[in-house]
Amino acid sequence: RQGALCDRAAHNFGLLGLKHIAVCHEDGIGHLQRMSPVDWIFVDPARRDGHGGKVVAISDCEPDVTALEDLLLKKASHILIKLSPMLDLSLAIDGLRHVQDPHVVSANNECKELLLVLGRDASPAEDIPIHCTNLTDTQAPLSLTFTRRQEKEAPCSFATAPQAYLYEPNASILKAGAFRFLSYIYKVEKLHPNSHLYTSDEFIPHFPGRKFGTLKTYGFSKKEIKELSAAEKQANLTVRNFPSSVAELRKRLKLAEGGHTHLFATTLVDGRKVLIQCRPMG
Fold it and tell me: What is each CA distance from 233 to 179, 249, 260, 274, in whole angstroms?
């Protein structure tokens, strides 16, 4: 709808020799109503309100894809929608009637994209395959696919204490919520229902996330804090299901950032608050 942007896009496409692209200076919904059917439509709704503030709900974006779903599928057999990575995935699946394949994509363990493929023949919401992919600079993409029914029905075991190895799922899996299913598939035990950290006595090299060798587990008695402070002056620190922030905990432990050691501040299944001292594996 902004003529200046259309002119720039047309100019750049011409410089790149992309003669198959047509730039239309008009409202996209009006164009959608008049256009001939195609195979795919890609939609990237604007995530800003009238005051320039960020929005994340589908219905708050422009255009509102929930109101256009039937029209979109009348014009194309498949729709690819790019949404905010902050959006709740379950709300997205439940808010649209024709979701076929949701994709949660992270790059170097940072969630970047929530992509929804809509189609005319969609499965029930509980049986839609959810695809989690983490792209890295150093290795092949790590992927996991599950359904909400599998997550709900998967048995999940809990460890009473950290074992020899500790695992943190990658950002795509944490975003998608494959918590019980991950424990079942990789035969690892969770530390707490809400901590989303896993442990095992045997190393799982293909676990889709960060892997650590456990060195020692500390409680929060004065003696243990003193012992940890004497042993570690510098460490990377992660907080999961823990009442203090990273900054608060660093100040309390007098701990500098960086180094080769990693500390996880978390809660165990029995409610104990602990610091897990570990080293990265690979």
Answer: 33, 13, 11, 18
